[in-house]
Amino acid sequence: MLLTKGTERSFKRLPKKNQEKTKKQFELLLANYRHPSLRARKMPGANYFEARIDIHYRFTFSLVRKGILVLTIGPHDEGLGKK
User: Can you give the CATH number for the domain in which 16 is found?
Assistant: First the structure.
């Protein structure tokens, strides 16, 4: 799994509790990006998906040749790249 530099910074800014939840969701993502706990769904556009960390936090990712590229992490709208 690959993270952009911005995504790494966003991850480090998350509260510790949310960092642990995010790590758990990333494990599920690596095993199966369609895992029900992720509630992943395709976003409009080319090969972008959104997934759930918890009720307030989301992340976006893309399937690439080298695996999975995580693009954004954050509160609901920010995590979806809307802010």
Answer: 3.30.2310.20
Structure tokens at 28: 């599920």
Residue ranges of the chain whose pLDDT lies below 70: 78-83
Find out whether 57 and 78 touch, Cβ atoms under 8 Å: no
Range of the domain at 61: 2-79
Rounded to two decimals, the pTM is 0.86
Residue with tokens 């992720």: 38
Q: Which long-range contacts (CB under 8 A, 24 or more apart) does 46-51 make?
A: 50/79, 50/80, 51/25
